[in-house]
TrEMBL record:
CDD domains hit by this protein: FMT_core_GART (cd08645)
Catalytic activity: N(1)-(5-phospho-beta-D-ribosyl)glycinamide + (6R)-10-formyltetrahydrofolate = N(2)-formyl-N(1)-(5-phospho-beta-D-ribosyl)glycinamide + (6S)-5,6,7,8-tetrahydrofolate + H(+)
Name of the protein this chain belongs to: Phosphoribosylglycinamide formyltransferase
Species: Gluconobacter kanchanaburiensis NBRC 103587
Presence of the UniProt keyword Oxidoreductase in the record: no
Keyword Metal-binding appears in the UniProt entry: no
Binding site for N(1)-(5-phospho-beta-D-ribosyl)glycinamide: 30-32
Gene3D superfamilies, sorted: Formyl transferase, N-terminal domain
Active site: 128 (proton donor)
Alphabetic keyword roster: Purine biosynthesis, Transferase
Transmembrane parts of this sequence: none
Pfam families membership: Formyl_trans_N (PF00551)
Length: 210
């Protein structure tokens, strides 16, 4: 008896991940931005970079973003003088026009005004090179060594009006070695930053996508 012919069944297409549009703010080389670009290139990663914005025309990170095919924009703060809010209103208009749902600070070296923080309340993330609440502000690696800290690391937090005071979303730590200099400690912390930021952003985007 002849066996019935079995038709091959087409495989169901893989479910497409709904990606959350994000904008990244930089001022310099954007090393954390590079880690986010690599993460967002994965089909299963829930974020899509729709804009990379810098307040400095000479920021090396702009070339990195452009090489990745991302839209970039420069809104130089210098023409605005001391009027930070006017500068930030231009930034906000660009963020709104991009369709971004989240703003990610990646080495953005400007203290934000309460106006912009309020406009993006609970939707703006930052990464800080210390285990907050320890060592807010600048020169964290020098401070950790000087204080005799046994552990140091990085923190991803929501941005609030207080500098480095927002709710903590994730942390990663490294031991402080007796032989450490600020540079060697910074290098090890930076490795953890590149792992932690995409991980925390993924978690936040999963919440937004629901």
């Amino acid at each position: 008896m002849k066996k019935p012919h079995s038709k091959s069944r087409a495989k169901a297409p893989a479910k497409k991940t709904e990606k959350v549009p994000i904008a990244i703010l930089i001022s310099g080389r954007g090393s954390n931005m590079r880690a986010l670009i690599e993460a967002c290139a994965r089909p299963d990663y829930p974020a899509e970079i729709v804009l990379v914005l810098s307040n400095r025309p000479d920021a090396p990170g702009l070339e990195v973003a452009e090489a990745a095919g991302l839209k970039t924009l420069i809104i130089d703060h210098k023409p605005f003088g001391k009027d930070r809010e006017a500068h930030e209103r231009e930034i906000d208009a660009a963020l709104q026009a991009s369709g971004a749902m989240l703003v990610v600070l990646a080495g953005y070296m400007r203290v934000l005004t309460p106006w912009l923080v309020k406009a993006w309340e609970d939707r703006m993330l930052n990464i800080h090179p210390s285990l907050l609440p320890a060592f807010p502000g600048l020169h964290t690696h020098e401070a950790a060594i000087k204080a005799g800290a046994k552990e140091h690391g990085c923190t991803v937090h929501l941005v609030t009006s207080g500098v480095d005071e927002g709710p903590i979303l994730g942390q990663a730590s490294v031991p402080v070695l007796e032989t450490d200099t600020p540079d060697t400690l910074a290098a090890r912390v930076l490795e953890q930053e590149h792992l932690l930021y995409p991980e925390v952003l993924e978690m936040i985007c999963d919440v937004f996508a629901k």
